Amino acid sequence: MKRFTSLLLLMLLCTVSFAQDPNFHIYLAFGQSNMEGNATPEAQDQNAPKRFKMMAAVNFSSPQRTKGQWYTANPPLCRQGTGLTPCDYFGRTLCEKLPEQITVGVINVALGGCSIKMFDEDQIGTYLPTCADWLKNYAAQYNNHPYNELIALAKKAQKDGVIKGILLHQGCTDNMASWWPAEVKMLYERMLNDLNLSAEEVPLLVGELVGQAEGGSCYGHNSACIAKMPSLIKHCYVISSKGCPQRGDGLHFTAEGYREMGRRYAAAMLDFLEKNDNNAEFSAAELEVRTNEMVLTPGLGTEITIFGNEADGTSHNVTRRCEFTVDDESIAKVDGIRIVAGMKEGTTVVHVSFTDKDGKTITTDITVRVEIFPFTADGLNPSISGSGKFTEKTHALQTGNGGFGGWQYTNGIDISEYKYLVIHLRLPSAAKPTLRIYNTTSVTGDYYEYEILKQKDVVIELKDLKTVGGKDLNLKNVRMIGFSSNGSAAMYINEVFLSNDGETPAGIEENVKNEKLKNEKIYNLNGQRVGFPLEGGQERGFFSASSALPKGVYIIDGKKVFIK
């Protein structure tokens, strides 16, 4: 416990540029009825510690509360008329365990009976009109856009303190929906991006629904969906509902069930806080980055983690204490501890420096390349819908049956200036692949579709494309491009690119004939140096600099070059 207290005290020294008080720890909570609170508070649930605060997400008349203001966190914490929620004993437990100088605050935006789609800005426009009137009335209290309200309140709260974690309890309405894990991951990442937060510092805590042993009606969601979240999100904790009693309706916990769930949420958060020591003073021998080369899609923001290593190998997270400069901020920039890609393709370098306790400055560099269609494990998501696989070395993409995998553009990209989309497969695929282009981040939304079937080379004219629903595809706001198939086999993709002549990739700075090249710095679009093959040419895909390169796009001396 002494070590834990020391670590927490070190954390209090962390400098966060947007926070007025680093000792005010704030948590965001969202979901449906169990997060909203469905049990009547009892006498023991009153008189919350004054160090435990709630920000009113809506106006209350009883008790009198004003939206956007902080109050002592006596129930109800969500809206007037709601009940006890996991947030109640989450905050109380943290106050018991953390040093007295730390204040805990929660912001709870939850709507009983809602799908996770209620929080998706790309789906709420079509989802909300289908809801029952009572649910529409709940949504109206959040200006018919709960996600926007939560983010606006969170930004206001960031002027007072530091957001430390995100809590979710939802799933009954979406029980066992195969798309649910990907939807939650997308919402979590969108929250991080919108609030300039880091996944290394802000975990996602996901609570289980009422379990099978307790007579839960939707217990299958726990294993089918919630259990998958830690494999999709690095710092994700699943909060067990085992042994937590329910009210008899199979859906909602009793007051004691909510108390216990809240304590378990808190235990998970305390575990994360104890492990997150990133402020020690030390003598640095080197700076270490998770990766010194990254490929991003336009508009994508990704957190970076910088470690300062002592001579004996002891490592410390120093990300927030580093200084960053960028060669070309039109390609990428550093925003807090996130690298954010611009809206054009290109390559730039981020220079990182850290000064240790002895005044010694050490440096490292991160090369950032922005590509619309990166063939990297981080850039291409084979499981946007369904369970897919992608092999970076061979460019082999295999979706699940009816699944969808490809590239996601959080803030949308504009491809309206291009005339063609070109796809070259290594060989025709037996999986009957189709290309899809979305104006939404939801796979259940409308999309344009092109049946590739047995073709190897495809050139799609981008003019006047229609979605399967008969609408004009908006090329100025493309959110996803990728492939669906029957899942029976992989498709081997040589390249995908935008073009103005149907043959040459747009943005090419130079065309080079397919002939022997001098020993230049040649990279493929995965950022891999083109090297010498093993004896007998056993390692395909790597070539000597004195032999002919296959047709395609390469980076040669920093320029994007098309080999004819």
Descriptive tags:
564 residues; alpha+beta; Rossmann fold; Immunoglobulin-like; Jelly Rolls; 4 domains; seven-stranded mixed sheet; five-stranded antiparallel sheet
Account of the protein in words:
This protein is an alpha+beta fold and 564 residues long. It has four domains: 17-274, SGNH hydrolase (Rossmann fold, 3-Layer(aba) Sandwich), CATH 3.40.50.1110; 286-370, Immunoglobulin-like (Sandwich); 377-503, Jelly Rolls (Sandwich); 508-564, no CATH class. Strand 32 and strand 33 (559-563) form a beta hairpin.
* Morphology call: globular
Strand order of the largest sheet: 5-2-6-1-7-8-9
Whole-number average pLDDT?
87
Q: How many strand units? A: 33
Question: In CATH, what is the class of the largest domain?
Answer: Alpha Beta
Strand content: 25-35%
Secondary-structure content class = alpha+beta
CATH superfamily of the largest domain: SGNH hydrolase
What is the rounded distance between the termini? 65 Å
Largest sheet: 7 strands, mixed
For the record, the CATH architecture of the largest domain stands as 3-Layer(aba) Sandwich
Helix content: 10-25%
The whole-angstrom Rg is 26 Å
* CATH T-level topology of the largest domain: Rossmann fold
Number of helices: 10
Pick out the low-confidence regions: 1-19, 512-516, 531-547
Count up the domains: 4
